[in-house]
Amino acid sequence: MILIKKKPLDRRFPFHLTTLLVSLNPIKQFSSSSSASSDVHAQNLDSKLRSLCAQPCPNSVLVEAVRLFEHGVNDLGQIPSSSTCNFLVATLAKNKAYGLAFDVYDKITHQFTPSFLTLAALVEIFVHNHKPELAISVFGLILKRGFVINVYLFNLLLKGFCENGMVHKGVELFCGLDRKMVCPDIVSYNTLIKGLCKARNLQEALELKAGMENANLAPNSLTYTILMDGFCMEGRVDEAMGLVEEMRTKGLELNVFAYSIMINGLCSRGNVKEGKELFNGMLGKGVSPNVVTYTSLINGLCKLGQLEETITTFNAMLEHGVQPDVVTFTGIIDGLCKDGKAEKALKLFNVMLGKGIVPGNITYNVLLRGLCDKGLLADAFNILQLMIEKGERPNLVTYNTILRGLCNNGKVDDAMTLFHSMLTDKSYVEPDVRTVTLLIHGLCQENRLDLAADIHNMMIENNKLVDVQTFTVLIGAYLKADNFGKAMDIWKKMIELGFTPDSLAYSALIDGFCKLNMLNIAKGIFVIMRDRGCSPTVFDYNSVMAALCKESSLEQARRLFQEMLNGNYEPDSVSYNIIIDSALKSGNLESAEELLNHMLQRGLNPDAFTFSILINRFSNLGRIEEAKKLFNKMVASGFTPDIYVYDSLLKGFSLKGKTDEIIQLLQQMAVKGIVLDSKITSTILRCLCDTSEDLKLVELLPNFTEEPSKENCVPCDELLLKIHEILPKLQSCST
User: Fold this and answer.
1) CA pair distance 94, 65, nearest whole angstrom
2) 31 by DSSP, 3-state: which?
3) Cα separation of 348 and 296, whole Å?
4) What is the pLDDT of residues 352-369, one digit of tens each?
5) DSSP string, 490-540
6) What is the per-residue DSSP string for 634-669?
7) Is the pLDDT of residue 241 over 80?
8) Over 60: is that where the pLDDT of 540 sits?
9) Is 188 within the bounds of a domain?
10) Residue 348's pLDDT is what?
11) What is the sign, positive or negative, of the torsion defined by CA atoms of 397, 398, 402, 403?
12) Spatial contact of 436 and 470, defined as CB atoms under 8 Å apart
């Protein structure tokens, strides 16, 4: 603990260097008649100071040395020798006691000529205290005193400029340097390259690397690691991988830091497969992953929803003695919450606390969001209470998360209370536009549109907390409620207040009018949107195409789809589903198959709906073998067929008289735990019309799961009873 009472160092830094070099605290001048005893005291002071500075220097020793110095100067009128004063300043700076070093320098600068070590210490003091522009002035004083600037001081000043957002000053210093005076070394180049990467001047950083090679300085592993980090931070992972290959061709091995940077860069961009390959290659090279390496891979796996592999990687991390940190736990908690496993996330959170790892706001907010999304509001409020007890102050994200959770779980009145507290109680965080938007959205979900509009108008009157998104939510809600006039009034108000509609605002109008079957207006807005430089999204195209197909304007829908392909828009699986369904409805099976193949060629995998509509159409048209192939492909792709798919297949098999196939499918349905509703039960009964009289249906039919709580569910006993009752009639139908 520093006991000396002194002014804060920063208060002196606004002055120019020339001001700092003049007398600030005059020391008593010694007269020629000073006694011999004073000389003895001065010698004793020198001896004691040097003795203290020669020791290992914990903070207490440094404080004692400065206390002794100030006692001699201020109380006894004695000043140590020039060499001792310079030695004291240099020792203090060397031990990073920059404030104390500057205080001593401040008192001696008018008495003695500072030595090179003192001036070097002054450079370090200014750089440490984020004043590199003052440090460069000291360079002039060093040269004026006849000293030589060494490469260490040069690199120190470069670091000061680069770390304080003044990399351009660093470049000027580097380029203007007299190479006869100081020759930059590899540290100089790496320092400036790092500064350029931090400033996102990657091209200049690469040019500096080339200049480094021209100066016969071979880039080392650190050079490449810095550049890889810069490219990964910009999302240019492919170029970073190019540097990895270049590094390897020069015989340089990646260390754990380089591997961690690349694995994080790949996983952050969704290239988890390549990240795992690099991770395995790292293990093969005998490089041990650290917590950053594991955490990067874990976060990448979580983002892809690969939770089983995430847990496997986490366990491997523990087995290898690498302790997870708060970032590791937060990533897994986030992945569990996004996968709907908030209860498991809560358990892991408790494990984290048990290990003594202190969660921050991000961890709390991630867990709160997961609990709220799952409807576990009681647990969410317990976590909020714990957060406050642990001294972690809830921020705006926290309150918005809770408010959103209340709204989504039908607690809009509680959300209103929270919002009012945020507006009026100083102990809460002030709401922002998102808070208002969430509350208005919650009210609209409850069909409390008038109250939502009242809050919106109140915010407008207070000239705060509204934006285009807030207007958009209200407009969409009124269109959904078929209140075209009110929606247009709000749109008009938005324009009058000077808000420029964005793509989301136009999308809300387009989607709303499509659902209101006011397609001409929707198409008009679509055109206006483009004319005003607001590019339509894939969602807008899909809304209009779906509406066109609904009114049987199939050709217009196809033209719009072709426009997407020809333009700068990437159709998604929904786009293909819409246009494939339209082709099937028009009986154009060849076109539907071509679209499916085209979809696969563009790297888009069919979703459950794609398979469902194709299976249905092929079954209805009697092309049952193709329907079966699609069904098998659907299952192989990881999708679970629903009752609609099974119903389509059963009808297709019945159409072709494939009784064995019907029985096999029913057995498969039973194994999958399919619950029969009234519709599919009716289909099953009709399918049995074509069965042979000799076929023992009751013995062959499987037992289906009973779930009476399901709406329209038919228990298996009831199904068998119906078969017994109606079987004679069904079999007579076939004759």
Assistant:
1) 14
2) coil
3) 18
4) 999 999 999 999 999 999
5) HHHHHHHTTPPP-HHHHHHHHHHHHHTT-HHHHHHHHHHHHHTT-PPPHHH
6) HHHTT----HHHHHHHHHHHHHTT-HHHHHHHHHHH
7) yes
8) yes
9) no
10) 94
11) negative
12) yes
* DSSP assignment string, 135-173: HHHHHHHHHHTT----HHHHHHHHHHHHHTT-HHHHHHH
| pLDDT at site 60 | 67
Answer whether residue 594 shows pLDDT above 70: yes
> Which residues have CB under 8 Å from 699's CB, separation 6+?
none
**At residue 150, does pLDDT exceed 80?**
yes
Does residue 258 belong to any structural domain of this protein? no
Q: Phi, psi (5° rounding) for residue 289?
A: -65, 150
User: What is the mean pLDDT of the segment spanning 105-113?
Assistant: 72
What residues contact 453, with CB distance under 8 A and at least 6 apart? 474, 486, 490
Amino acid at 92: L
Q: Where in the sequence is the domain holding 657, given as residue range(s)?
A: 644-735
Element (H, E) at 429: none
Structure tokens that stand for 407 in this block: 């709204």
Structure tokens at 294: 């594991």
The position carrying tokens 């076939």 is 734
Q: Of 11-20, 283-292, 724-733, which one has max mean pLDDT?
A: 283-292
- 373-391 residue pLDDT tens: 999 999 999 999 999 999 8
Q: Which amino acid is located at 660 in the chain?
A: D
Q: Which of 728, 642, 709 is nearest to 679 (CA)?
A: 642
Answer with the one of 97, 129, 147 that is the final residue of a domain. Answer: 147
Specify the pLDDT at position 226. Answer: 94
pLDDT of 717 reads 52
Query: Would you put residue 235 in left (φ > 0), alpha (ψ -120 to 50) or beta?
Result: left
Question: Which residue has tokens 């009128």?
Answer: 77
How would DSSP label each residue in 583-601?
HHHTT-HHHHHHHHHHHHH
What radius of gyration do the chain's Cα atoms show? 38
Q: What pLDDT is recorded for position 66?
A: 75
Lowest mean pLDDT among 140-144, 276-280, 373-377, 420-424: 140-144
- Compute CA distances 323 → 179, 352, 357, 425, whole Å: 47, 11, 10, 41
Count, residues in the chain:
735
If we measure between CA atoms, which residue out of 250, 254, 323 comes closest to residue 284?
Answer: 254
Residue in this structure with the two tokens 């400065």, named with its chain if needed: 66
- Residue 38 pLDDT greater than 80, yes or no: no
Q: How many domains does the chain have?
A: 2
Q: pLDDT per residue over 462-513, tens digit each? A: 777 788 999 999 999 999 898 988 999 999 999 998 888 888 898 899 988 8
Sequence-ordered list of residues with C-beta below 8 angstroms from that of 226, at least 6 positions apart, any chain: 190, 193, 194, 197, 205
| Residue 12, pLDDT above cutoff 60 | no
Instruction: Report whether pLDDT(710) > 70.
Output: no
Write down which residue in 147, 180, 204 finishes a domain.
147
Question: Would 121 be classed as within a structural domain?
Answer: yes
On the question of pLDDT at 344 being above 90, the answer is: yes
Residue at 470 is within a domain: no
**Whole-angstrom distance, CA of residue 526 vs CA of residue 540:** 8
Cβ atoms of residues 623 and 589 within 8 Å: yes
End-to-end CA distance of the chain: 103
CA angle 647, 571, 648 (to 5 degrees): 5
Amino acid at 375: G
> Are the C-beta atoms of residues 274 and 310 closer than 8 Å to each other?
no
pLDDT confidence bin for 638, thresholds 50/70/90: confident
CB atoms inside a 10 Å sphere around CB 50: 17
Give CA–CA dist 312/296, Å, rounded. Answer: 14
Q: Exposure of 680 by Cβ count < 10 A (0-12 exposed, 13-18 middle, 19+ buried)?
A: buried
3-state secondary structure of 182: coil
Residue with tokens 């190479």: 179
What are the structure tokens assigned to 643, written together? 């009752």
